[in-house]
Amino acid sequence: MKTLPGIETEAAARPAGPILRVVVVNGSPSRPSKTMGLVSVILDTLRGMLPIETSQIDVYRLGPAFTGTIEREQVPADVAAQLRLAEEADLLIAAVPVYRGSYPGMFKHFFDLVDQYALVNKPVLLAATGGGDHHALVLEHALRPLFAFFQALTIPVAVFASAGDFDGTTLLNPRVYGRIEVALTDVVDLLRARATGPG
């Protein structure tokens, strides 16, 4: 599989059977980052439930062809391929650090270019990191309304971790681990059905 700029793809050892295609849209400009530390735990937990194939789109690494694009019709082929990757996922993980009470502008710009109807009924797991617990409201007041516009199926339990939950970029807080377990266990049957569905 060809790896496109701004996308990392992983095909881990996994049991035979239907594969859930998981795409992470990473809104963090930092590398490594606490945001992706959180996502790593989410993916490891999900990997213990279902066979998955993961791809990662780092919106801050998509380059000037992405940042300079205003309309979907104007996007070059490589950016269009990255948008389609997100649109065709079985499960989308939207992961952001909180800036000024909301998600970063580059993350929003990516979804400004996503087709309006491409995410209808698509499961989306919301994940965010911030300096303190007061930033957790971004999940309900910013991220969930964004995906409601797309008529996506946002997973009921969203996941937030604050700076104090990490050692560097390694998540330590067992309560966050527990929330991740709850979030995924609640929808594992739905995700399994997505993996066995057509396409």
CATH class: Alpha Beta
Q: What order do the helices and strands follow?
A: EEHEHHEHEHEEEEH
Spatial extent as radius of gyration: 16 Å
Please tell me what the overall shape is: globular
β-strand amount = 15-25%
Total E-strand runs: 9
Q: What is the fourth-level CATH superfamily?
A: Flavodoxin domain
**Kindly, what is the distance between the CA atoms of the first and last residues, rounded to a whole number of angstroms?**
17 Å
CATH topology: Rossmann fold
Summing up helix and strand content along with how strands pair, one would put the structural category as: alpha/beta
Keywords: Flavoprotein, FMN, Oxidoreductase
Domain NADPH-dependent FMN reductase-like: 21-163
InterPro entries: Flavoprotein-like_sf, FMN_Rdtase-like_dom, NAD(P)H-dep_FMN_reductase
Protein name: FMN reductase (NADPH)
Task: Offer a concise description of the structure.
36% of the residues lie in helices and 22% in strands.
What does this protein look like?
This is FMN reductase (NADPH). Pfam families: FMN_red. It comes from Amycolatopsis taiwanensis. Helix content is 36%, strand content 22%. By secondary structure, the protein is α/β, with parallel strands linked by helices. The strands form two sheets. Strands 1, 2, 3, 4, 5, 6 and 7 form a seven-stranded mixed beta sheet that branches. A two-stranded antiparallel sheet has the order 8-9. Helix 4 links the parallel strand 4 and strand 5 (123-130). Helix 1 packs across helix 6. Residues 1-5 and 7-15 have low confidence and may be disordered.
